[in-house]
Protein 1
Amino acid sequence: MANPFTPGFGTPPTVLYGRETEMGLIDRTSFTLGAKHPAHSRATIITGNRGIGKTTLLTATVRRAQGMGIPVLRVGAKRGFLDDVHYAVDWLVDELGRKPNLSLAEINIGLTAFGVGIPGAKLTRKKRAADAHKRPFGASMRVLIDLLVRRKMSGLLIVIDEMNFKHARDTTLEHIVSFSSAYQSLIEDDLPVAVVISGLPIPIERARRNQHISFLTRAEEIRLDEFTYQESQAVIRTIAQASDLLITDSAVEAMAALSRGNTYMIQEIGYLAYERSGGELIDVEHVSAVRTAFLEKVIGSVAGVAYEELSTKQKLIIRTIAEQPEITPKEMARVLGAAETSLPGYRKDLVDAGILVADPEVRGRFIIAFPYMKEYALRLKNEGAENSAAYDRVTGFPDV
Ligand SMILES: Nc1ncnc2c1ncn2[C@@H]1O[C@H](COP(=O)(O)OP(=O)(O)OP(=O)(O)O)[C@@H](O)[C@H]1O
Ligand SMILES: [Mg+2]
């Protein structure tokens, strides 16, 4: 039997656990393409921290839309993504002109071939494609939507993953702004187009505050959080049942505890324990045996990645709380070199993103909620200590 656990980024799980409400919301805002006057701007944003299932939910959305006969344009909002979208749209307009009977499947391959890289797709991007655009982006979109509607299709769904950018001068932000203004004008003209976007909470919140990205302000937001301990157990049990795998109760509890409710981490511990068990029955011994390997993996590749994406001040806050969980607001202000009254401002994005959670018992005290980010930050401290030992050794020789 193949391992039923699927750790990976964007790897569809064998069982998509507990996203019924979210799928319902996406359907409501995005699949009303046939309706003349939709209630919303037909935009949905999925936010959540690293490894929480955003890409997976987008993939489920794409499949559902395609099942309903809706063409889907899917891209990753990496550098230059607007050129990729633009090029794909122009390509499809040409194709539709030449081949009147192009199937929905072929249309979707053309639309997905950029940005997410479908293996085996025939379409390759020409060099300097950006210079070769025939019309402005908005105009290309209009031509495409018109062609789709004439083919009795209900419209176009655009799916954008990883809408993250680091700072105001990021070129990705410029592309997002250009995309937004083109999209906005399509919506104003009542054209059947919808968008589902995903990204990390902090950049998405920043984008929502940007006055040049107006469609995001009115978008419906779906926030993905960690599963609870009970839910994490249910995820593991459901996956095991679906593949006739036996797991003891104590193994399920140990796996759920280690996962801390992060979907990536649930899959990772499941994967490792399954491999260790040989595939017949997972018991708690197998889980203990892979515990260290699991921690190595998730501290570095999930918590560490999420930490390194934070700003310098945010990192300092996390590091300080990791090292001194009982720090007073006054001491924290001193560490940050700021006034005590400005602390909430510094913390706000971390709290909104669910990376920090207020301790209900002690006013002004916070705990690090992101799974294993505390452990990652403490490692940095130890590295610092090792470095300073090396420094002392090297500089410990007197000048003669
Ligand atoms: N609802 C779910 N039930 C079970 N497993 C899930 C669920 N959602 C996601 N997963 C699993 O969790 C892992 C991470 O999912 P995904 O890549 O979608 O996260 P993400 O939020 O896009 O992460 P990132 O921010 O790093 O891109 C994948 O291995 C996926 O199979
Ligand atoms: Mg993702």
Protein 2
Amino acid sequence: MWEFYTDKTILLTGGTGFVGTAILYRILSQATPRRIFLLLRGSQQKAQNTWADLLSDNIADSLIQNPRITIVCGNLKSPNFGLSDSDWQCLQESVEIVIHTASPINLVANLKRMSELVISPTMFLANVALQMPELQKFVFVSTAYSNSHLWPLGKEDDVFVKESFYTFDTDRGLSEPANESLENTTKGAKEEWESIRKYQTTDIWETFDFPWAYGYAKNLTERLLLEQFWRRNALEKFLIVKPSIIAPAQSCPFPGYARANSVPAAGFTAAILMSPGRHFNFASRGSDPLNNSTLDEVPVEIVVDRLLVHLARGTSGVVHTVSGKRERLSLFGFIWPMIMKERPFPWKIKPVWKSLDWNSTDLHLANRIFKLAGTSFDFEDTKTERLYANLSQREKSDLILFTNEHKPTGEERRGIVQDMLLVFGKKQHIPSFIIKSFFPAGEMPGAEVPPLPNSKDNEKL
Ligand SMILES: NC(=O)c1ccc[n+]([C@@H]2O[C@H](COP(=O)([O-])OP(=O)(O)OC[C@H]3O[C@@H](n4cnc5c(N)ncnc54)[C@H](OP(=O)(O)O)[C@@H]3O)[C@@H](O)[C@H]2O)c1
């Protein structure tokens, strides 16, 4: 399947992010695209510094010096991303694949801000992509939790989420998997977006209990994109990739590869480690949250390989990139005891379950931000199961599509948790040596990863 990427011209946004860097590395280590345009904020030097932090110096250098990469500096916040018409025209003439990963993962920002940073730039980019004569696929990286409004609506302790779009009925307070009617699925989406711009709210946002404006903005973007590609008769060119909570790599590019503030579970762990209380209030409507709360954490290489194989195989619509029911973790059965072992305080703490709104100030701060503690989602991933069944043996062994005994216990997790502790500690004026002494980071693997293969056929460029 890697041959699909031979000689392709790709536009990748967020190529210095956790997922974007891993996509870039994976394509360049397996295939020979003609060119990858990286749309990055900042400068070439900033990109090099970010890659040097995330990767070993030799890989960072081999990325920055790779003749197949062209860096284009632009910011999602600026009109047209700050690029001139002629820059866009040049991209439009050659790009065949757009992979849009850039996005803030901000769980506290309001709807207006999320509209400006998620919805508007994505719709602008999709519009540009739809004018590319050679466009084969536009990939939008959303989140599986864009449907987490389903938790408050459900009755079961485990909420099944289909690999599909959902419709909204505000009169009846219902949200259901979309059927074949695109008219119905996309109905009112444009007015919803207009309402955010005018009033900073919408009927759907008011009616349904979305945990974060971030998730709702991704949900609305998915429906707006669906409508745009449908109206332009280009549904087969449109893929939405929906990761659950992304975890450090298990193997690729190297075990432990991660960007600290892009691994939400590391922030949750650090917040619990630093809180001195004896009782932590969490919200759940579940009957037995201690035993039934789960966390779908997916190692980053699975997100990357699912995205790249579905893209290559022509899948369109929604794809979940998740660990799924097979490999998700019990939050309080597995992760919580690990956190407790590391706490610097001599007393034990007890999670206390409250039937509260997940914005209530009675809840522990970690739960008010990371609202998933106390929920359980069963994300369908049958599209990947079906695709896997049709791969050759060689492709099956080349690709990493399923989580295999994901146990976030290794040394690699310590480094990013320490990074988050240092961030929180700084806000509370706790000297870094205190944090480092109670929570040593351990050795980070990774320095041994080989640099990218040298491009021997530069003459094609
Ligand atoms: N991490 C997760 O657990 C998770 C879970 C579900 C879905 N996702 C989705 O996966 C995608 C990638 O996330 P990630 O984990 O790779 O996050 P990340 O490490 O924070 O990367 C996000 C990328 O977006 C770029 N970006 C943010 N704001 C920008 C702006 N105003 N202009 C230009 N670029 C901007 C960042 O640039 P800088 O490098 O300059 O910061 C970075 O390269 C996102 O769409 C996210 O919503 C992530």
